[in-house]
Design goal:
It holds the Pfam family SOUL. With 113 residues, the protein is an alpha+beta fold. 19% of the residues lie in helices and 27% in strands. It has helices at 27-30, 62-78, and strands at 5-9, 19-22, 50-57, 89-93, 104-111. Strands 2-1-4-5-3 form a five-stranded antiparallel sheet, with helices on one face.
């Protein structure tokens, strides 16, 4: 499994309804990645970006991600962080779904500029 596996949520509360799941291609395959076998799967080259991130542990539910996202935005507002795009965000997982303990989860908001 590549890590992290991210899910780009196209609206603040859209989990499965409006999202893209992203898997990273390991460095050794990035020069010439394999062609996807399914038409819904595509390769996207992404530029370097900056994110505001909050890491948390546990077997996260949709509600857990929503709570962490809300707290992260609240902290960004309180600390006057400039350029936070709160119209969309990502969630990230680093372990297999079969690992039950010591899990690493993250919520990401893009920071412009």
């Amino acid at each position: 499994m590549t890590v992290p596996v991210t899910q780009h949520l196209k609206t603040p509360t859209a989990y499965a309804e409006s999202s893209d799941m992203c898997f990273y291609i390991p460095q050794k395959f990035q020069e010439n990645p394999p062609e996807p076998a399914e038409k819904e799967v595509y390769i996207e080259e992404r530029k370097t970006e900056q994110f505001l991130v909050n890491r948390f542990s546990g077997f996260a539910s949709r509600r857990d991600y929503e709570k962490v996202a809300a707290k992260l935005l609240e902290a960004a507002t309180r600390d006057a962080v400039k350029g936070v795009d709160n119209s969309t965000h990502w969630i990230a997982g680093y372990q297999s779904p079969w690992k039950l303990f010591s899990r690493r989860n993250e919520v990401w908001f893009r920071v412009e500029g």
